[in-house]
């Protein structure tokens, strides 16, 4: 791939900023370990969503998820699983980049992790250690801590521990940055890496999104928000983005990692460039803790900001990797945003949602879908949106229902989170 800007400045974009190249990708998902396994399954339209087997689901309204069952899940707590998934994904990305494979990564770590709080099994154990059914008091906790070791729990449930351990494993430089911006977190981690390289603060960044939150407590909480699909049988058909009969998202888990580099540095060391992060756009709004602003303004603004940052217009986008959660409101609002930005072109541009097969991987989603977007560019093949059998007439988009072989140079990857946290990325094969 060429590494020069059309303006004639080597390895700089049209605004004079360093081009940000991608030299390593890693992914772990319910469809498999690594790029090849996940990509093959995606393009074949296989689903990773299945009945949950790792804990009892009796009495739960939703009993399905896209869990990663081929890795150890003990202890079943979000921070431990998130760290495990992040490590696996980062190992693949760093090895592919050939940068810092010996535990000496020459850049910073930006990692999206789920919000951390002590979960019910540990709360119960603490209460029992404090005297059974009585109140949990500070004095009781002191006494329990003196008689039993809670150091491991304390370490596990501190926000930032996952980042510390990943930073130690790969030898990243500086203080690792942990972040949580709801369902846009993975894309935000990439954005922070891009901005740091553009500012000249570093020549490389390891950007990760990871989430291992499929546990009883999370299922109950999302069910109370009426956010989850209850179409448990068959599990594979529950996630149906943009369909008229969609009824909610399906939880998923996994991780993705990207090695970003200043393109000049990557070219100088002879690295293979897998693509570029051309543009990042974000827009927050405080309309509601879970709902989108009804006028779609923040979503529209985030999409436009990513295109403006890339220095391109909507017509330059070849396909959209949609947020596409399969919830009634989010799909409608995303479609509104795409139609506002692309105009008549919204009916032409191919739109796909990986969540139809992976489920919603929450904090990891933006990074996982960025990796899939780059694989789409590399292979010239758009993965399908499965289960799209009953189109929603209110969403007149060009939904890809079978893997489509077409040249792809630029992908818009959308991530929209609870609380109005919206991040969009433009990924490309060549500088804009």
UniProtKB/TrEMBL annotation:
Domain of life: Bacteria
Pathway: Lipid metabolism; fatty acid biosynthesis
Keyword Transferase: yes
Keyword line: Transferase
Keyword Transferase set for record: yes
Domain Ketosynthase family 3 (KS3) positions: 17-429
PANTHER family in alphabetical order: 3-OXOACYL-[ACYL-CARRIER-PROTEIN] SYNTHASE, MITOCHONDRIAL (PTHR11712:SF336), POLYKETIDE SYNTHASE-RELATED (PTHR11712)
Family of the protein in this entry: Belongs to the thiolase-like superfamily. Beta-ketoacyl-ACP synthases family.
Protein name: 3-oxoacyl-[acyl-carrier-protein] synthase 2
Native species: Methylobacterium cerastii
Gene from which this protein is expressed: fabF_1
